[in-house]
Design goal:
3-stranded antiparallel beta sheet, 6-stranded mixed beta sheet, 4% helix, mainly beta, disordered N terminus, 1 helix, rod-shaped
Length: 182
């Protein structure tokens, strides 16, 4: 409880609205806490008080551990009909935010962004993809029950990878100087 001295020089009209609107306290560890506002007399006896309220202090979530595609890997999409992403579940997380970007000319072009409650995602709309460099980002989120409202979240993991179609870049086609068509 934060107490205002009984012989305060603050006027009663300015105390709550101007000075005691916000208070930061250090030294709290993770856990559930209760608070209330109380008016006390010169003896320290409580005259009146608000209802008790609760708040939680929780640490940050751990960054998700990536399984696939791993950083720096190259995915050959020739015989695939999905691009699969997977990661290790993060304790406390109940939602994951995944974004996929293609690097084109040094800039990131957004390909897709999804939220899932699973530790995997399969991108089936391969028309969104092209050959080249990509970055996928992943963030673990703890949301309030029954909502997607964020309670706490992890730092974002950024994983670069490449997509190819299995065509060798040194492929050379020899043809005669003149090609006849009918």
């Amino acid at each position: 409880m934060i107490r205002r001295p009984p012989r305060s020089t603050l006027s009663s009209s300015s105390a709550a609205s101007d000075v005691y609107k916000r208070q930061e306290l250090d030294g709290f560890t993770e856990g559930a806490y209760y608070w209330k506002v109380a008016q006390v007399n010169e003896n320290g006896d409580e005259i009146m008080a608000s209802p008790s309220y609760t708040f939680d202090i929780a640490g940050d979530l751990a960054k998700p551990g990536v399984i696939a595609p791993q950083g720096g890997s190259t995915i050959d999409m020739v015989h695939r009909d999905t691009l699969d992403f997977s990661w290790r579940p993060v304790p406390g997380a109940n939602l994951y935010r995944l974004s996929l970007y293609q690097i084109v000319g040094g800039t990131q072009r957004a390909v897709t962004r999804i939220e899932t409650r699973n530790a995997f995602y399969s991108l089936a709309d391969l028309k969104k993809l092209d050959v080249g460099r990509f970055i996928w980002t992943l963030q673990a989120i703890e949301s309030y029950p029954g909502t997607n409202r964020v309670k706490r979240k992890s730092d974002e993991a950024r994983i670069p990878f490449n997509i190819t179609l299995g065509i060798k870049s040194d492929l050379k086609i020899d043809t005669p100087a003149v090609i006849k068509t009918e």
